[in-house]
User: Fold this.
Amino acid sequence: MKLIKPAGCEIPNLTCRECAGRYEANSVTQVFCSAVCRSAHDTRRIERGKILYDIFMELRYNRRGASGLWSLMCRVGELWRDEDKRLRAGRQSWKDPAYVTDKNPHLLGKRGRI
Ligand SMILES: [Zn+2]
Assistant:
């Protein structure tokens, strides 16, 4: 979404969520300085998601094999958070859960709650 900037309105310089570089936003929803940074962010989420998908599905639908899987998911999250702190100066590597529900409103319950 392109930002329509009213006369006299200043768009602040922002910090890229991926590289921490400063940039001037072109839209109100822009959080990355470039397509390269957006792609790097999404690629990491995809790769991490592949790991969690199988663990989650086993946890949810094969209860016999579920022992220890929640702990495994937590351990994976700890390792990724440590990696984020070490390589990304602690910048958040995930999107707000509202991003998921905004993109997938059918996931919400009848009252619009998670
Ligand atoms: Zn960037």
